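During the reporting period the student researcher (J.K.) took over the structure-prediction task from the postdoctoral fellow and processed the backlog of single-chain submissions. One of the processed entries is reproduced below for the supervisory committee.
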Amino acid sequence: MNTFDTVVIGAGMAGVTAARMLTDAGQRVVVLEARDRIGGRMHSDREAGFPVDLGASWIHGIDDSPLWDLVQALGIPTLEYTVGSFQVGGRPIENFDGEARPMDAAATRQWIADVEEADRLLVCEIDASSPGDTYLDVTERALDRSALAPERIDEIREFFRHRVEEQCGAWIGDLDAHGLDEDAIDGDEVIFPGGYDELPRRIAAGLDIRLGQVVEYVGRSSAGVVVRTADSEVTADQVLVTAPLGVLKAGSISFDPALPDDIAGPIDRLGMGVFNKIFLQFPTRFWREDSYVVRALGEAGERWHSWYDVSAVSGIPTLLTFAAGPLGRHLQEATDDEIVDDVVAALRALYGDAVVEPRARWITRWGDDEFSRGSYSHLALGSSHHDHDELAGPVDGVLHFAGEATWGDEPATVGAAYYSGHRAAERILGRPVDRDAFAAGIRARERTADR
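J.K. obtained the following structure tokens:
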């Protein structure tokens, strides 16, 4: 008899969700996590006395979102912050033109109208695209049809490139023409003033989670599965692998027998993007009090283009900017000082001497992280939306996969990780799992623990 019913590899959002649901259903479950913490790519650094979300930050669209329902059911505090998906307008944004000059209200309205028209044309070009077309291809066709002045086209071209890099962590020419099809935001977006990783930590409370366990081997047979780390071996009836796509692409886990083509193919075809964060905290605010974002357009924003005001989390003036795609990979070789100096110089091009030296900084390098090897998945050229869902398996009825890369409707999100963990639990159990009962069970355990 195997020691466990199910072994879960990875204690990120997908892993702890599935493990909690399976445990609540009466299964014997163990979670093997390579890191010295739970949460995976949800990582809230609290060393400064307030949380800094180095990984996931947002719920992108709360309307009809089961993830939002869970957050509300658990009473986790949130702040509305509806620009996390690189919106062109809708909230106060300080825009600067290609020559780093502040744009007035009229220029901003024209800019928003230009992008909306280009986006309308872009949707048509995507619908008419052929296999092998990249997002760069369809973008250029849309801009050619726009009949806008060359300088206005240049600014939109930069905007589209940065949008892809922020959403996918990839160069626009490496993304399939349909790569942002699932990028729909319904309702407001929110961030977490108490740190996003409160969610997986509360789900995981009381589970058998073994940290520092780097899985190297997964074997399967008619007798079940064997999972090995450098110094331990676990047997179970079934295994759920929630390791990030980057880890799977790197071949860090050996599978025996080898993964079939319907799993190995999606792993090979899908892309793993790099999206790094730079938080800069300043002694004084030099941007507008009501601004959600500072955004440099065109040539002025060729390298650093958007800074998000996340001061509300700490109460200290703080801007968050991103290095994604090619820039993100390049800057992983730079020092923290070099990165900060570069970002500050870009801000001074907009605000002059009002930009003083930052008092604190936080910089991520997710592409160099051996337990993620990137930030999140994207639809690389040659892949399709079906690849995401096909990756979930199962294989031989005993090997399952979950995580953001396995959910085709909205990959690269915490929501996708949550939903995929739920799906995996249902497949392993062979029956539905009610999400409301799942949330109620978490609250009930917390009340019992508080007595």
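The committee noted the following: The radius of gyration is 22 Å.
J.K. will present the remaining backlog at the next meeting.
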